[in-house]
Amino acid sequence: MMAASFFMHPLESYGRASAYSRNPAVVISKFATAATTTFCNASRRSCLPTLNALRAGATDDYLSSLSSGNGSFSSGATCHGSLVDAAFSAVEIEEQSDATSPDNKNQHSIVLARHFLERTCPRFLASEISNDEDRLIKIGRSIDDLVTRSKTEMENEDVSKVAEELRQSLGLLTEECDILASGKVQVPKIRFGKTELEMPILSLGCMRFQQAWGASIETMDDVSPECQENLINILRYAVKLGVTHIETARGYGSSELQIGEALRMLFENGETRREDLIIQTKVPLRPTATEFREIIERSFKELQLDYVDLLSLHGLNMDEQYDLLLNNGKNGNLIDVVKEYMAKGKIKHLGFSTHARPDLIRRFIETNEFSYVNLHYHFCGSYTASGDGEGNLEIIRLLKDKDMGCFIISAYDKGGMLYMPSRKLRSLTLPDFEPIAFGSHFLWDHSRLDSSTAVHTISCGAARPSDLDQPAVAAYMRSLKTQDVSKRVDAVLRRMRSAEIAALGEDWVNSWTQGLPNFTRSSAAVQHCNIIWLYNLIHSFGMLEFCKARYRSMENNSKKWDSALSKEDNIKALAPGWGWTPGRAITPGMDYSEDFVNVPEKNKARVAEALQFVHELCSTDEAAANDTRIPQNWQSAYDMRPWTAFPERGMS
Q: Which pLDDT band, with edges at 50, 70 and 90, does 80 fall under?
């Protein structure tokens, strides 16, 4: 898990308190260093004789246990037939024709899903929810990876064991389908700190369903009917599930504009009421109080609302923003503008969102001007703050101490790209949870793992209604089977801890953050601690694609760096983008020894090795040439994005 950071809390109860308490925000590392899995290179059909052994090794009692109430998450499933046999039969039918284009591959996934569900969960196919082919594509992709993985594993493992794990994993999938078909899913609510709002533990993030980023969309005439219909359907589905917290931002392109129009229609039609929703928007700071007031007014106009329940100051990431709020001289303190709106009842509660260093986040919290914070904290780390001491764990604890709302953002993207997990990560979370469900439960269960913390809600940035399915089902099942969920969380945490120790060694897991500087303490502004975190994630959980995305943002900063300017002037020139994704990548061959004077001598050589390793695998200049170094279990198990989100369609 988080090398000395993620899993620290949960694992304290298993006798590792000292290691975890020292580095609770650390992540993981080296599980996959020498572990290159041998995958079946022959065609699927060439493995069929052995697949029959797999089918024979699987017991047939899972579905009957569901219907009898003995399943782990019994929901009265109406399924029948052997899960393993159904999965292999569906794959064999799907393989009868070749697929080369993405459209054909999607159709094959649909065929696979339908054949599997006909035997295992016909209620899903009979329900309206199956009319959305996105869901069938996702189901098909999930089954295909499970079958492919089991074919590989059975070459080196006991067939009965492989078959049983496959059966349990297929059981999770079948159960989720049955629960969705029941129409009973409701996301539970929790007190959102001192705001006293009843907050759903799952929130709708609104940065992936609008027409476009930027200012290209000025009116609803510029929005395609297809995009607006999709957005309205997402809002409808969210409200139906009990996901009544809607979170957008002035900086999300046309999101506010389109949401405002959609809400107006939904209110007028009586489909929902304003008082039943918690609406949040976020606005960036501006140099003067006058400009700041203008941008707040723009948000109210586009949202077509008289008030917002939550207003966040968007991206308090840089030190100078503190003065804009509280010491802005003749230009006016921006915090005073917010207080004017609050006095009029137009803003109910004030918070802020951040990608900042933990020490800067703490400084903003200690002003006592805020009721909640939107920030990163995930099973795999704290995103840009990872490796910086305990990361944002100390902030989560501070929020609990001050009774502030804790809103974890981007749980499935910046929290590890869980919609596209590595094969290794999926193998570690199954058969207890799919990665998205585990990432959710880790956060919702965090107060049990560490009683000095409280996570209230996590965001799901939905591009389609189906993107809410798995998180909502996880939330619903948590409310029904809390103790069972907690046992499963512990089981996954143990496996992940074992994986990182096997990959990295226990001494490294417990000590790697010691003395590592973030960009503020690096002479060249290199985000060393974050890069080593990536090294750990790749080796421990195979999270290569996620690590590439994070490293390339650092690489982009390096490419824009002007060697003629000072470090401070470069950071100012790169703002505000630097605040969102701070730090530079390494320059191969450069001597960074002066940055590592506080690193324990035993770790210095490995730190240098790890920096080079990440650069070679994740740099845009190096990665393509190193594809042959990538083990199969570092590759993606599936991609649960069967189509391109609207704002991404115009991006080159």
A: very low
Query: pLDDT digits over 371-382, tens only?
Result: 999 999 999 999
Alpha helices, DSSP H only, in 445-543?
Answer: 446-449, 469-480, 482-504, 506-511, 528-541
Distance separating alpha carbons of residues 132 and 137, to the nearest angstrom: 9
* Paired residues of 245 in beta bridges: 278
Joined together, the tokens standing for residue 168 give 């349990």
Q: Compute CA distances 60 → 21, 48, 76, 152, whole Å.
A: 44, 20, 17, 22
Question: Range with the lowest mean pLDDT among 138-147, 160-169, 465-474?
Answer: 160-169
Tell the residue number behind the tokens 């990440």, with chain if given.
614
Task: Round to whole Å and give the CA distance between 524 and 517.
Answer: 11
Residue 200, beta-bridge partner list = 189
Structure tokens at 534: 């990536």
Distance CA 426, CA 166 (A): 12
Q: Are 639 and 419 in contact (CB under 8 A)?
A: yes
Token duo for residue 396:
């989560």
Q: What is the 3-state secondary structure (H, E, C) of 410-438?
A: CCCCCCCCCCCCEHHHHHHHCCCCCHHHH
Report the C-alpha gap between 564 and 481 in whole angstroms.
Answer: 60
Say yes or no to pLDDT of 103 above 80: no
Look up residue 360 and give its two tokens.
């800067």
Least confident of 34-48, 275-289, 442-456: 34-48
Average pLDDT, the chain: 88
Burial of 284 (0-12, 13-18, 19+ CB in 10 A): middle
- DSSP letter string over 118-144? HHH-HHHHHSGGGGSHHHHHHHHHHHH
CB 543 within 8 A of CB 70: no
Give the model confidence (pLDDT) of 108-119 as tens digits. Answer: 999 999 999 999
Cα(491)–Cα(512) distance, integer angstroms: 25
The two beta strands, 189-191 and 198-200, are antiparallel
d(CA 254, CA 214): 8
What does the block give as tokens for 189?
């609510």
Number of C-beta neighbours around residue 548 at 10 A: 19
CA angle 189, 194, 200 (to 5 degrees): 15
Measured distance CA(246)–CA(238) in Å, rounded: 9
Which tens digits make up the pLDDT trace of 565-585? 999 999 999 999 999 999 999
3-class secondary structure, 440: helix
Contacts 24+ apart (CB under 8 A), 448-453: 448/486, 449/9, 449/10, 449/12, 449/13, 449/489, 450/9, 450/12, 450/24, 450/393, 450/397, 452/397, 452/400, 452/401, 453/9, 453/393, 453/396, 453/397, 453/399, 453/400, 453/406
Peptide bond into 431 cis (omega under 30): yes
**DSSP conformational letter for 564:** T
Whether residue 576 is preceded by a cis peptide bond, meaning omega within 30 degrees of 0, is yes
Give the model's confidence band at 53: pLDDT under 50 very low, under 70 low, under 90 confident, else very high: low
The 3-state DSSP class for residue 261 equals: helix
Closest CA to 370 of 356, 383, 353, 392: 353
pLDDT for residue 445 is more than 80: yes
The mean pLDDT of 81-105, rounded to a whole number, is 75
Residue 449 CB neighbours (<10 A):
23
Residue among 296, 277, 232, 292 at smallest CA distance from 259 = 232
Q: Is the dihedral of CA 75, 78, 81, 87 positive or negative?
A: negative
The DSSP 8-state label assigned to residue 103 in this structure reads H
